[in-house]
Amino acid sequence: TNPGRSGGGVLGRLFKRGDGAPVLRRTLDDAMLEQIEELLIAADMGVDTALRVTANMAEGRMGRKVSTREIKQLLAAEVARIMESVAKPMPLYPTKPQVVLVVGVNGSGKTTTIGKLAAQFRAAGKSVVIAAGDTFRAAAVEQLQVWGDRAGVPVLTAPEGSDPASLAFEAMTKAQADGADLLMIDTAGRLQNRADLMEELAKIVRVIRKKDPDAPHNTLLVLDATTGQNALRQVETFQKLANVSGLVMTKLDGTARGGVLVALADKFGLPIHAIGVGEQIDDLQAFDPEEFAAALTG
Ligand code: GDP
């Protein structure tokens, strides 16, 4: 897999003349910087981050001749520097159960990510309980059950349309009684009615805190990397709805222009706990900043 980018890096066009003939070295001047900025913006890095990254690349080098290799190395170093500070696995606490609340818009990959995470925790010898908290989408509950079966993890469900908070409370009670290491709670992702969703998430948090005042220990926001700059808006929205502690970026196996990860890291500094690189159960990886920077740069 090639997380962050498929089909070559973002700087491909920089060292080509109009007729497509390759150029070996170019003077690093304003025209070139502008071109780099445009390429980074086209790769979903966002304007602010693209400008900052380009300025850092150029610092002390204006007017010098640079090669493709040098400019790629400069970009890769700059991207890796930004991304290193956010590449952190999800923190694990000794509390039983450690509660992981999973939020994100429908279609972002919440269900799939919960299934993949459950399988990883199981493989690490941990016992897991899943609560299918998106009680308004029967299909979501069914999907989660399929993933629970695959991961060998029990999935607690409630009748369609019932209160997700009571399910969360029940799941918390069961996870405590079973001595489970982790409880993962899926949540609804309907942003159409934010006030409702906010109240729903707040109520889930309230009831699980009756059982453990420190819960949830992690609130994961799942973001689809292919949505580009939309991902930034989703972080802003969900930070208002819930106390987001970390991100999982999905669909980085596709044609995702992974530049949005750099924008996210630069703007919010939230840890990226994992990346989704496919639809199978083992397609969830730790985020590797060096590998990502190399893939993005090409
Ligand atoms: P939810 O609505 O947020 O629960 O999203 P789902 O988990 O149902 O995922 C929506 C779609 O995205 C499904 O078709 C998944 O197979 C797909 N998907 C999820 N994660 C990834 C990923 O990392 N890579 C790819 N290629 N597809 C993914």
TrEMBL record:
Q: What is the lineage of its organism?
A: Bacteria, Pseudomonadati, Pseudomonadota, Alphaproteobacteria, Rhodobacterales
- Give the membrane topology, semicolon-separated if more than one: Peripheral membrane protein
| GO molecular-function terms, A-Z | GTP binding; GTPase activity; signal recognition particle binding
Q: Which positions fall inside the Signal recognition particle SRP54 helical bundle domain?
A: 10-83
Q: Which InterPro entries match?
A: AAA+_ATPase, P-loop_NTPase, Signal_recog_particl_SRP54_hlx, SR_rcpt_FtsY, SRP/SRP_N, SRP54_GTPase_dom, SRP54_N_sf
- What this protein is called in its record is Signal recognition particle receptor FtsY
- Chief location of this protein within or outside the cell: membrane
Q: Which keywords, in A-to-Z order, does the entry hold?
A: Cell membrane, Cytoplasm, GTP-binding, Hydrolase, Membrane, Nucleotide-binding, Receptor
Q: Which residues bind GTP?
A: 104-111, 186-190, 250-253
Organism this protein belongs to? Puniceibacterium antarcticum
Q: What is its EC number?
A: 3.6.5.4
State the source organism's domain of life: Bacteria
Residues of the SRP54-type proteins GTP-binding domain: 97-298
